[in-house]
Fold these 2 entries.
Entry 1:
Amino acid sequence: MKILVINAGSSSLRYELFSSKLVSLSEGYIQRIGQKGQTKDHLTAVKNALDTLLKENAISQLSEIKAVGHRVVHGGEKYTKPTRITTSVQKEIRRLCKIAPLHNPPNLEGIRACQKLLPKAVQVAVFDTAFHQTLPQKAFMYALPYLMYEKQGIRRYGFHGTSHAYISKETRKLLKKKSSKIVTCHLGNGSSITAIQNGKSIDTSMGFTPLEGVPMGTRSGNIDPAIALKLTEKRTPAQVDHLLNHESGFKGISGLSSDMRDLLKTRKTRKKSQLSIDMYTYRIAQYIAAYSASLKGLDAITFTGGIGQNSGYIRAQICQYLTHLGVKLDAAKNRTNKKLISTKGSKIKVMVIPTDEEKEIATQTLRLI
Ligand code: ADP
């Protein structure tokens, strides 16, 4: 028996095949879906992925794939766990496109493609928002008229849930403590910080959409909401949306790039590269400190994602604001991306753990079936 994991984005598709023991057998990434002269659509992309798996002998026939785990970004308030995809579940994912117009539609395309090409396999949705459904109401509400929540579902949902769930599980294994207070920092193109008590998410920095929280590659993160209104004086709402999601963050501040590697390379010669880094690390440290209040204590801080896993400089910049809490980094271990990068005497353990969202989706899919 094999499990296929599908992560269908607007113009790309990531896939990974796992054995029943959750060993990765093969993976691939198909880009530029829907662009001229490239892969036509998600159906073609899944077909190409399956052809590759057959050609590589990762499977000898399609019927070996007994289940497909799909990453679905938005599960609203309804889905708190991985869910077998039935007609009514599919309808609900479609209904949620209203609040996740960028993410849920391509996820649905991936589901439809797999239903067509692997009709006998069980299709399972693993939602990015599900892990954060344990947030208490005081943390997920916005102080808007209550009707906005009741009628329009305007509340904090949080994202990157599969990654935070995986990282918190791995951190707890290393902590070897029954009760634990952890802050996980997923720092990639998108970045989010989560407060986790005894394995449950109790607060997270992304909100109604992934735009809230710390500055990111191209997203602004938190701004005074009145700025968005001011911007609509000369722009349409769609233009403001584009500006905040695609032209801001590192790209907007540095005027150079949304890629952290470019900022690190140029930080000594370009003031705006250093400024982007300083704004990013300052805000992340503030979230960690705020969440130590939410958790009423802190046992561990864990870094993951392309930036969190690879940049000792960024981690050191963040942790320098946290020494009063008792955080002490071991400089050599931090520089070489070791798993435990705090010193023996540090009151709070600081860790680096590579995320594996695909494996977590496969684990949850296998558990369900
Ligand atoms: P995504 O959020 O799209 O999954 P990743 O988690 O791969 O993306 O993170 C991408 C980010 O990680 C980019 O900003 C990239 O510059 C950064 N990154 C990758 N490798 C390094 C590195 N060695 N040092 C610093 N940043 C890195």
Entry 2:
Amino acid sequence: MNKLSFEVKDGIAVLKFDNPPVNSLGLELRQALVAAIQRANADPGVEAIVLIGSGAGFSGGADIREFGTPKAGAYPNLRTVISEVEDSAKPVIAAIGGVCMGGGLELAMGCHYRVGVPGARIALPEVKLGLLPGAGGTQRLPRLLGVEAALNIIVSGATVASEKLRDTPLFDAFGEGDLQENASSFARKVVAEKRGRKRVRDMKLDMPNAEAYLQFARNTVKAVAGPYPAPLACIEAVAAAVEKPFDAGLKRERELFTTLMLSPESAALRHIFQAERAASHILDVPDDTPIRPIAKVGVIGAGTMGGGITMSLINAGLPVVLLETKQDALDRGLATIRRNYQGALRKGTLNEASLAQRLALITPTLDYAALSDVDLVIEAVFESMEVKRQVFETLDRVVKQGAILASNTSALNLNDIANFTRRPQDVIGLHFFSPANVMRLLEVVRGAKTAPDVLATAMRLSKTMGKVAVVSGVCDGFIGNRMLARYGAAAHDLLMAGALPQQVDAALQDFGMAMGPFRVGDLAGLDIGWALRKRRSAEFPDRDFSNVSDILCEAGRFGQKTGAGWYKYAPGSRHPIPDPTVTAIIEEYRRKKGFTPRNVSPQEIVERCIYALINEGARILEDGIAQRASDIDLVYLNGYGFPAYRGGPMFYADQTGLHDVARALQSIAAQPGSDSSVWTPAPLLTQLAQQGRSFSEFKGSAK
Ligand code: NAD
């Protein structure tokens, strides 16, 4: 396919990129561009050259589909392309509209002139992937914008509107109207006025007190960069632009870029970027599956989840019919929704008028008849099969044919719920996480009979709501909570082995988890697990579900909401204080269960908890509950506070080496008191480890 068109008019060669969706600079376009610059230079009828993008804009930068493939670095790479442009004997003018990001902006800065229009989006977002702009961006942008403004753009990765930069040397001309026309007439002016070529590399970069400013920037960025090396490396690259001649600066930029490219943090961030793109593809549902239109949604239950789900929907502009059984529950739910918007109002991210517009999208009701014409219903009532049965039988009677019926259940069997209706093909699980208006994760639960277009529609809806959706098969806990159960059990085992909650939490927080498991327990409320264990004990009387937290709950310690749980809390405070009473309860419990305490190291804590997650993840993958390892990573990253710089549990396992993970699990399984059904490496893990392969290479199945 031709990725670039070449047209000469009035002595100006217009080179138009045609590489949808964002004119990314993939190998074919790079080759075509170099050939076109040479052709234009060889053509005596051409006096100047205009580069312009078709469709979405100038260029979105590197082609992400090439990441990690030989094409990414194949000749000509982006730096070579930019040199060709910069060295062109005839002036090259970039026409900047729409997206102009990353390598696209670096290319534009390699041109001799730039013409802009309002509405273009300018950015160097490489830092978000743990990198820096590696094709001269850190050397050229400071020459055009000054050190401070350039550094802000490079270190933040933020997008800037072209209007804000119109009066800077980034643009030689700027205005409304037809961009190609403007750029061509500017090119004719350059030729007529014999302006020649203006190379950014030749511009002087003078900054009084540069050293002091750079030191200030280093200190500021160090304080917020956490474990990520890229932001500081961006500063070093810009420092080189200040301190060194242009070519030496480029060399330094390259060295820093290469180091970042090899860093585990960047590998993790690039993995997440790719994982998010992969997750929307369902293995056996073609991407072009027609979706069902969703113009109006019903939500059943205005409690914690129903309220948050309603907010997610109205934030995306979707009208919602919100149904409750009693007026006071409905009023309470609506009041909570209103209250939850107060924060956004205070911060100024939302104003009263748009809040009113959103709230006007809600139609509160006590009457199922109001749901007759909705396209989708999301049920978020009490977690009881009997209540769900009543709701779904009613929905089956009142909601129009073809509508999607979704349940937000966390732990009930979705296939049983689907069978309460005469249309199980239209039933799906939409498992939101609390608070549903904030958390990005959505597990899309695929029932045995869920129709492909229902799945495809759910994935599209999740995008509309700005969520990261991951498809899960039906099993106890789906992907996230099924793994969490193993992680929690591993943490509890560590208490039995001799650790205290604060030690376990500290070790896992040092590993990077947003919060340790016992602090999470106190936040979520220990009574939830207590009730579940009581229910399970009644269902399976011959199994032992007991847990130290049963004793905490019996003492009224439900966590933060009662001022005490695994920790104690000062009134009104969320700060956990280790509590000797809890230590005594744990010691007593250990004695009763026959455990002799020993020293437990932070390394053992991390290994046991994280490897428990990984082993269950492997089972989830081999069972076909998750489609691919990277989906599991997204669940843990977006729903459970796993550190992004480690890329998710499955990616972390791949980086550690599956052989080492399997060996560590085997050694835990062999220890006295270990439950071998839990700790024995999953067959898939053993198999991949033996073959020297990774989870990312495993092509899953759909279930
Ligand atoms: P909740 O108790 O806060 O809210 C449930 C609401 O449903 C209440 O307002 C209640 O009045 C209403 N309700 C009960 N029966 C009803 C009926 N027949 N018709 C209409 N409304 C009815 O509970 P929640 O925490 O919002 O949980 C709701 C569902 O979401 C459960 O299935 C739960 O497992 C699931 N879930 C909860 C969380 C969480 O963190 N809370 C997370 C994911 C999923």
